[in-house]
Amino acid sequence: xxxxxxxxxxxxxxxxxxxxxxxxxxxxxxxxxxxxxxxxxxxxxxxxxxxxxxxxxxxxxxxxxxxxxxxxxxxxxxxxxxxxxxxxxxxxxxxxxxxxxxxxxxxxxxxxxxxxxxxxxxxxxxxxxxxxxxxxxxxxxxxxxxxxxxxxxxxxxxxxxxxxxxxxxxxxxxxxxxxxxxxxxxxxxxxxxxxxxxxxxxxxxxxxxxxxxxxxxxxxxxxxxxxx
Length: 228
Fold this sequence. Notes:
Blueprint: H1 4-9, E1 13-21, E2 26-29, H2 34-40, E3 48-50, E4 53-56, E5 76-79, H3 86-91, E6 114-117, E7 128-132, E8 135-143, E9 146-149, E10 161-162, E11 166-167, E12 176-177, E13 187-196, E14 199-214, E15 220-222, E16 225-226
Parallel strand pairs: 2-3
Antiparallel strand pairs: 1-2, 1-13, 4-5, 6-9, 7-8, 7-12, 8-9, 10-11, 13-14, 14-15, 14-16
């Protein structure tokens, strides 16, 4: 679609928003086509997307010379349930089917690989995802009391990355579980994308809401300042 300004001049372009939450396998958007969003995010670890995102609040950037405070706008991100209430069930699901305890701190290598040493892995799938706090770690195999994380598997769904695109995942000592045990203090990012017809193309801007929280109305609220 070319540059955003060029696309806007055609009169056939609009903007949509996409929310990515740490440890959650679905993107959430207000775009009519969730498939188009998945295509636009093909370079990421996300392959699923839900509709129903609602964005409210001022989205702006401003500079005030000689002002000693920072203007930090606030936006609220609400998720309207789909027919299966997919997001709501994920947020308010019961505790994991399987839980175990770590025997040492998990500190992944810079390439996102590592070993999560635990007391036992009986009943767990041979490969899959293990949650530690709000982070999802993709394991390729099970060892004797261990989850073997291959390169790029640590913090598999992360809105932020480093080391040539590898996901950030610091030392963890929480209780590993087959499902997420918490939704608080997860990192998240909301970004705006331009669309033309059924295609979702270039990212226009992004906001780093910081840490997510949830309420009993199954609404995710994120606050923060626009990212550079």
